[in-house]
Amino acid sequence: MSKIDIKHACTFTGHRPEKMNASEVDVKTWLEKEIKNAIDAGYTDFITGMQRGVDLWAAEILLRLKKEGQNVRIIAAVAFEGMNKGWDDYWMQLYLETRRTAFEDHIISNYPGKAAFIQRNEWMVDHASRLIAVYTGAPGGTKKTIDYATKNGLEVVCYGK
After folding, report:
1. 14, 46, 108, 156: which could form a disulfide with 120 (CB 3.0–4.6 Å)?
2. What would the pLDDT profile of 94-127 be if each residue is shown by its tens digit?
3. Residue 157: its H or E element
4. At a CB cut-off of 8 Å and minimum separation 6, what does 37 contact?
């Protein structure tokens, strides 16, 4: 049974690094600003989808803020075990540290594949009241997550808007 405080929970969506149209530095700077804005607004629970790019950059920022004494709880939402197979050391270490130190660690599906990522994205939205998104305008999982969040009444904060 999850102990996520949905009213005070924020989640993330965004592209993998190779699909970004902004620099890593710019995205991380914006993410940190929005995470701090969420903390200032009373958010305490932060759900990361544990994917390379926006999800794990947000986790990296949250891990640092937690070490600095911020009252944040990190929730790992893993699409399926093994989704990190073949990642390089930077992403693998960040993934493992996030899972190891998470307040909650959820495996969303027992079956690998695209459907597991869709289920994970919907699960994250269903357990949050704000979505922080980095979106290039391209079709795909990020757009579908933003659309699902909007349909379900979440506040959506989007990079570049």
Report:
1. 108
2. 999 999 999 999 999 999 999 999 999 999 999 9
3. strand 155-158
4. 157
Closest CA to 35 of 56, 61, 15, 53: 61
Is the pLDDT at 90 greater than 80? The verdict is yes
The answer to whether 8 and 44 have CB atoms below 8 angstroms apart is: yes
Which residue matches tokens 């693998």? 92
Q: How far apart are CA 60 and CA 74, in angstroms?
A: 10
Exposed, middle or buried by CB within 10 Å (0-12, 13-18, 19+), for 83?
A: buried
Token pair 């939402």 is found at 77
* Phi-psi label, residue 160: left if phi above 0, alpha if psi -120 to 50, beta otherwise: left
At 49, which amino acid appears?
A: G
Dump the DSSP string for 45-104: EEEE---TTHHHHHHHHHHHHHHTT---EEEEEESSTTTTTT--HHHHHHHHHHHHH-SE
> What predicted TM-score, i.e. pTM, was given to this entire model?
0.95
Q: List the structure tokens of 112.
A: 């690998």
State both tokens at 67: 């070490």
Q: What is the mean pLDDT of residues 50-78?
A: 96
